Amino acid sequence: AQSVTQLDSHVSVSEGTPVLLRCNYSSSYSPSLFWYVQHPNKGLQLLLKYTSAATLVKGINGFEAEFKKSETSFHLTKPSAHMSDAAEYFCVVTGLGGTSYGKLTFGQGTILTVHP
Amino acid sequence: KAGVTQTPRYLIKTRGQQVTLSCSPISGHRSVSWYQQTPGQGLQFLFEYFSETQRNKGNFPGRFSGRQFSNSRSEMNVSTLELGDSALYLCASSSGTGTRNTGELFFGEGSRLTVL
Fold first, then answer.
1. What is the pLDDT of residues B6-37, one digit of tens each?
2. How close does chain B come to A4, measured CA to CA in Å?
């Protein structure tokens, strides 16, 4: 079975400073990993995905994540936070084969607060 | 291209009642998945439908059921509502083809159910 652990439930940054949201994964095989974002009262939106091509993955809105197999980590970063980045972020893993259809396994989420 | 549409957006029910939620996927998408989101349990997978067939199911009691129509629209039903069923129910769609779960789901804004 696969799982993800988000190491911080809340992260607070000032506008213009870097963002780091941490995620560790557990999987018995090479996983597919994702970051999704949920703005208040909205559905979830895919930020970026890792599927065993490049280990440094670039996503939308200036976010990127690096897959580190040795550390079983997939941390999300952004060089400079913007007020509109305030949201909840989810690290996600999928399984393999038919039993994984439609099924994402979510971390518990990290709420990002951006101060002016 | 229209996104995933869920109706109703908000509803209030009392214990013991039943509820039906509707989801219209993105045009051309044949897979529809349902998730329950609560503050305590986070995001949990309910089930996935593809071409009117349930392909995958999460660990929820039989009170939770779903179906998919020939136009890919989906409904989920919860019978004999309990207080703990209060949650945001999210629907997501994808093309659903292929043997691998790509993990790329497009989410609606959800139906917020309150059980009194």
1. 999 999 999 999 999 999 999 999 999 999 99
2. 13
